[in-house]
Amino acid sequence: MVEPMVRMRGLYKIFGERGKDVLHHVQSGMGKEELLARHGHVLGLNNINVDMQAGEITVVMGLSGSGKSTLIRHLNRLIEPTVGEIIVQGEDVMGLSADGLRKARQEKMSMVFQKFALLPHKTILKNAGMPLSVRGHDEATCDKEATKWLDRVGLSGYENHYPAQLSGGMQQRVGIARALTANTDIMLMDEAFSALDPLIRTDMQNLLLELQKELHKTIIFITHDLDEALKLADHLVILKDGAVVQQGEPQGILLNPCDPYIEDFVSDINRARVLRVRSVMSAVSEADIAGEVDADKSLEDLITLSDGDTNHIYRVTDNGETVGQIDMKDLVRALVPRASSSASAAR
């Protein structure tokens, strides 16, 4: 079994002077609101157990206050846990010395921030080359690597501009180029696209997916937007009040929500646009086949292909190989979200 790039086990964070003293209350079942009311402490993370695999995008999502940004800041110990285990590339982050932690932050993990965090007095080239500069590389090496990645994110020709001369989307591209210049295996992205306009945000998501196909980084991406999470995630972790409510492959979560909170979360999603054919297909059987469809096509694509005719059955292929079939009647059933347990109970 392949070891995950990042492993969190039994991770708790309680904000307050007596975090460890009140920990047993949380471990006995006390929730966030009660902990604050009775003990004046804030529950940030509650028994987090998550594996993040190498070469995948793990998206951690939840509403404001769910603990998602707290979680990502534990990986490089910008926030210290109350208790718990954090293993990164086989190494216990909690056991690192100050020098070891500094080295891990510089060489193992790069970070893309929501508010860009560019140095206003430095050019785009120097901003992008900053990770190598702080490691002591010479200016020529820094400039060469920075130029390569600025070109890769579509900013060739802007090297001598300053951050204030660029749009928000362009500044975030500099942030991504800077993280890529660091050449770390792990990229931490904390609400990286949340400050951008919708169209620019979509462009940045597409850019990230394009780069990921080529580079196969281990990316931990924080968002409060479910559409963004479903688009980007290989593995999706949904938090509420500091605890993991459900995690797994995004299509599986959408089709099989395990909790009323998740059911409500996914109820308004455009399922035809998000769900893939491979998630709804069945095993191959004898049937009249109307045509072929790629396994990674969306259900919306298949509806267009079938011209809305629900009487057809299509062969599903992946790289030219038959992997299943899909009945349009099964597609229609998949488009209907499961009724919320809370709504069902109210009737």
Defining key terms:
disordered C terminus, 4-stranded antiparallel beta sheet, 6-stranded mixed beta sheet, alpha/beta, 347 residues
Set down the secondary structure blueprint:
Layout lengths: L5 E10 L3 H9 L4 H8 L2 E11 L4 E5 L6 H8 L7 E6 L2 E2 L5 H10 L1 E4 L11 H5 L1 H5 L4 H14 L15 H14 L4 E5 L7 H18 L2 E6 L2 H7 L2 E6 L2 E6 L1 H6 L4 H7 L4 H4 L2 H4 L10 E4 L4 H8 L6 E6 L2 E7 H7 L6 H6 L1
Parallel strand pairs: 3-8, 3-9, 6-7, 7-8, 11-12
Antiparallel strand pairs: 1-2, 1-4, 4-5, 9-10, 12-13
Helix pairs in contact: 7-8
Would you summarize the structure shown here?
The protein has helices at 19-27, 32-39, 68-75, 98-107, 124-128, 130-134, 139-152, 168-181, 198-215, 226-232, 250-255, 260-266, 271-274, 277-280, 299-306, 328-334, 341-346, and strands at residues 6-15, 42-52, 57-61, 83-88, 91-92, 109-112, 186-190, 218-223, 235-240, 243-248, 291-294, 313-318, 321-327. By secondary structure, it is α/β, with parallel strands linked by helices. Strands 6-7-8-3-9-10 form a six-stranded mixed β-sheet, sandwiched between helices.
Radius of gyration: 23 Å
Tally the beta strands. 13
Report the helical percentage: 40-55%
Query: Segments where pLDDT lies below 50 for 5+ residues?
Result: 343-347
Question: Which outline best applies?
Answer: globular
Order of helices and strands: EHHEEHEEHEHHHHEHEHEEHHHHEHEEHH
Structural class: alpha/beta
The main pleated sheet reads as: 6 strands, mixed
